[in-house]
Amino acid sequence: MEEIKAKIAVVQERVRRLSKFKKLSLESYLRDMTVKDAVERNIEVAVQGCIDIARIIIKREGLREPEDNKGVFVVLAENGIIGKDSLKFLVPMAGTRNILVHGYDKIDDAIIFGVLEKHLSDFNLFLRDIEKNYRKKV
Fold first, then answer.
1. What whole-number distance in Å separates Cα of residue 119 and Cα of residue 31?
2. Nearest to 90, CA basis, from 32, 59, 30, 130
3. 17 Cα distance to chain centroid
4. CA atoms of 31 and 62, how far apart (whole Å)
5. Would you say 88 and 59 are in contact if contact means Cβ atoms under 8 Å apart?
6. Segments of the chain assigned E as strands
7. CA 105 to chain centre
8. b (16+ CB within 10 A) / e for 67-91
9. pLDDT higher than 60, residue 138
10. What is the CATH number of the domain that holds 62?
11. Is 68 strand, coil or helix?
12. Do 63 and 82 contact (CB within 8 A), yes or no?
């Protein structure tokens, strides 16, 4: 359980860091490369933390092996560990994480800014789902 707690702390810390940038306008965001870099990196690490949590649970519970990072969230949803709202957010975020890591020349600034502006609470929703539906059982 300590491993999951550590990953939860990472996600929470990255969301906290991201929340400092929520007041920015899109124009300010686009002008400041240091801010863009910080936002992109913190989103990447937050999503990776969610993926890591999902993989730990899948392994511990002996759940079916997902095909990819998007699939880890599908497996958790199939097993009642996360709800459909978390699933709806995290499947595309796994793809966004892949672009941030591997396709950095294809990053859509509007999507990243949209995550910052509208979806930070979705990370917390995922963590609440884990707390409610998994950690309490262990």
1. 22
2. 130
3. 14
4. 47
5. no
6. none
7. 21
8. eebbbbbbbbbeeebbbeebbebbb
9. no
10. 1.20.120.580
11. coil
12. no
Per DSSP (E only), the strands in 40-132 are: none
Angle made by CA atoms 87, 38, 96, in degrees to the nearest 5: 30
Radius of gyration of the chain (CA): 15
Please give the Cα distance from 74 to 76 (Å, whole number): 5
Residues spanned by the domain of 19: 2-137
How many domains does the structure of the chain reveal?
A: 1
Residue-wise pLDDT tens digits, 76-133:
999 999 999 999 999 999 999 999 999 878 899 999 999 999 999 999 999 999 999 9
Looking at this protein, which amino acid is placed at residue 62?
Answer: G
Start-to-end C-alpha separation, the chain: 8
Q: Are 11 and 50 in contact (CB under 8 A)?
A: yes
What is the token pair recorded at 108? 């859509």
Q: What is the pTM of this model?
A: 0.94
**Residue 86 and residue 125 in contact, taking contact as beta carbons nearer than 8 Å:** yes
- Contact predicate 99/32, CB 8 Å: no
Q: CA-CA distance, 66 to 124, in Å (whole number)?
A: 23
